[in-house]
Amino acid sequence: VKVEVAAEKAKWLVEPGCVIIGTTGVYEKANAMTFSWQTPITSGIPCKILLVIHPDRYSYELLKRNGEIALNIPGERLVREVHLFGSVSGRERDKIAESGLLLERAKTISPPLMADCPANLECRLGEVIPAGQHDLLILEVVRALVETDVFDGSSIIPERFKTLHYLGGRKYGVLERSLAAL
Ligand SMILES: Cc1cc2nc3c(=O)[nH]c(=O)nc-3n(C[C@H](O)[C@H](O)[C@H](O)COP(=O)(O)O)c2cc1C
Question: How far apart are CA 7 and CA 5, in angstroms?
Answer without folding.
Answer: 6
